[in-house]
User: What shape does this take?
Amino acid sequence: MNRKIAVFCGAHSGSEQIFSDHAREVGKLIAQNQAELVFGGGNRGLMGIVSDAAIDNNGKVTGIALSKLDQFEQTNPRITTEIITKTFFERKEKFLEISDAFIVLAGGMGSLDELLDVQVNNQVGMIAKPLIILNTLNYYDHFLAWMDNAVKYKFLSNINRNQIIITSSPEEAVEMALNLTAPSQDDWMTRLKI
Assistant: This one.
């Protein structure tokens, strides 16, 4: 399968071992399913773990690195392809362009920014690609509650809220990224109605 799955995650490993375990499992499963991992390029934290796991399982890995962060994130030297971008906008645009599906692991502001960028582009019909949150240890529960509030107070349609798929299983996350299709780009205006 030639599907390219982007994984957004932290340049830190987090406080709990399970964050690393889930990143490792996601990278391994992507490779074992002959899909390509697309990630932020870094060799630190969950980024380094997910990319190493894919590489260790004979996977193809593309890193989309930001030149300004290279000194901190230190691009993984083992990756198959490296794309260097000058701005966050260019980096996110490249992710949207080359990826077929997106999995979001635990991370910081960058991961949240990337998650929202994908969803907004899905929401307005610029792309139609599955977006899955791997909600390890209920990490994203407060974000999900915020989305529920946005639906409650009529700032977000329930259809667009439910477009983001939530799971706590690495296996389910990869399986959905491999097999799901997002709603059509053609009916995006209908999905905006509250």
